[in-house]
Amino acid sequence: AGVVAAARGCRDFHHGLLERRFWDRLLSEIWRDSFREHIRDWLWSDYAETVDRAAGRLPALWEYREHRRDNVGNHMLLDLCEVTVTAELAERARRLPSMENLRKSAIEHTGIINDIRSLEKERANGDHRNVVLLIERNGDLCSKAAIEQAVKIATECVERMIAAYSQLPTQLSAIAISDADQQGALRIAEQYLALVRGNFDYHFQSGRFHVGRYDHPDEFKAGSPNYLVELFEQSGGALDPRAENTRRACQRGDVP
Fold first, then answer.
1. Whether the predicted pLDDT of 250 surpasses 90
2. Which of 91, 154, 164, 235 has the fewest C-beta atoms under 10 angstroms from its C-beta?
């Protein structure tokens, strides 16, 4: 009932999902409204997918990539990053191009990795709503070539995340928000990077995705299964000690 209420825009959707007293302590009403909206988008994405399945329609690759950002359900996890660091994104920080690009790329990466690791299960089930299977179908490619293309898309997502993260301190310094809000935004951005890395590790370490041939697919050799680690080590991101230097530079106003 709580989930249906969320889809309908009910402000009391937390009944059945979150204990009332806990929900009321979650940051501001602005944050809670955003969290509700992301749950609604996620649920409506399932509705759209159900309609397509009933109609026997497969989306184009570009359309699927847009749909997957909502359907993977990670907007809410990014929202909860604000709870974990007890800091809320100021609206001006939330709307920064670098912050929006960081969120979009993080969400898309989690969906792409999930599709790659779920490939054989979904192929066996006849479910072609998978980025690899759509690439195969649209490009008339073999599975190996399609996986390589999907890995390339995932790598591009990480590269966009790194670029967005590196641009964030300069953009934060250009807007009128407090030092505390700037520092909070940086901590939240670091959590986004950590979430993406954790999602990547989960997909390779969890028994849920144990599918013989795709445990360590040859198709990942272009970057290796550690490509994400290697990219983050170059980024000054959450997994790199240089992240602390970035935060301190922003605090001093010495933004690179």
1. no
2. 91
Residue 83 C-beta-side C-alpha neighbours within 13 Å: 15
- Flag whether pLDDT at 70 surpasses 60: yes
108: number of Cβ within 10 Å: 24
The amino acid that residue 238 corresponds to is A
Q: Among 162, 185, 190, 179, which Cα is nearest to 91's?
A: 185
Q: Are 16 and 1 in contact (CB under 8 A)?
A: yes
Instruction: Give me the pLDDT at residue 174, please.
Output: 94
**More reliable by pLDDT, 235 or 84:** 84
What mean pLDDT comes out for the span 149-178?
92
Buried b (16+ CB within 10 A) or exposed e, 43-61: bebeeebeebeeeeebbeb
Place of tokens 């179908």: 137
pLDDT of res. 175: 93
Work out the angle between the directed axes of helices 143-173 and 242-252 (0-180°, nearest 10). Answer: 30
User: Taking the model in full, what pTM does it have?
Assistant: 0.75
Which region holds residue 140: left if phi is over 0, alpha if psi is between -120 and 50, else beta? left
Report how far residue 98's alpha carbon sits from residue 172's, in angstroms, rounded to the nearest whole number: 9
pLDDT at residue 123, rounded to an integer:
84
Average pLDDT over residues 127-147: 87
